Amino acid sequence: MTVYSRITGTGSYLPEKVLTNRDLEQFVDTSDEWIFSRTGIRQRHIAADGENTSDLALVASRRALEAAGLEPKDIDLLIVATTTADMVFPSTACLLQAKLGIANCPAFDMQAVCSGFVYALSTADHLVKSGQYRHALIVGAEVYSRILDWKDRGTCVLFGDGAGAVVLSRSKHPGILASRLHADGRYAHILSVPGSVSRGEVCGRPLLQMEGNAVFKLAVKVLGEVAHETLAAAGLAKSELDWLIPHQANIRIIQATAKKLGLSMERVIATVDRHANTSAASVPLALDEAARDGRIKPGQHVMLEGVGGGFTWGAVLLRW
Ligand code: ACO
Is the pTM of this model over 0.85? Predict the structure, then answer.
């Protein structure tokens, strides 16, 4: 019998504090008009002092488990996609595992920046399909507010904090139909946090830096390419796609990707206006919103797409 994997529950969490573009105008040389017209962003959520990635991940995970009708002890594989780990080590996945009160299952972090959740979901799909795992918990969680230079108006207005999670369970029916992952390290310099910790000191700049125009062009190119590649791998036509859930970096990148797929914006889940770019959390946050409000219906085809630092990109195509 063929073994498949399918998403059986979703959950998400956004920190309480909302920072609007108007709030930003008070301490950054910017305007709501500039930010909204170039990015589609109106506001973002910011984690409280002492609220870490694993804390955000915990709430999102509990909600996903509840939606799946499962207990933490049912989870036998745990992956956290994050760029903003609580500490150098142990992994945020291990810290989350302890907070969930479970032990023994493998737990590890996935570092693929804004593509992290799609990388983690694709990896979990293969591990579940191997037959070794029954219920995987896959989380994307970030506190980007901690790695931003709040004096750099070119980057600090773009990002926010949050977490999203899914339970991926073994199934007789698909589920995940196909996934494709890519990376090209030659573009490492266009989006990075180049600092590191060495001999007890922070070496290099530990804040996000970006060549915005280069990122924009590359993101539009690769998101279109990988969507077509993943549809072909599943043997589906563009016209059979019901929903596109792309990484929520910039509404103009999202619109350009939808156009390449011949999809109207009514078929695209966009949360960038309220969440900004939450990196590895952006896709599961958007997925949870659309799953809970009933937009995504059983049997529909959904394409999840990630793109980000590395440069990394990928897509997961699934039947809901
Ligand atoms: N408020 C006001 N003015 C600003 C701001 C700001 N927040 N930021 C930059 N400007 C100014 C610049 O200083 C520049 O001024 P100048 O002409 O006097 O020199 C002017 O606006 C234009 O700057 P550009 O960088 O050319 O603006 P552009 O229209 O290209 O938009 C942006 C910049 C929004 C960053 C765009 O390049 C973009 O969206 N890139 C994609 C990057 C992205 O989404 N990154 C997210 C992470 S990557 C990922 O997740 C895939």
Answer: yes
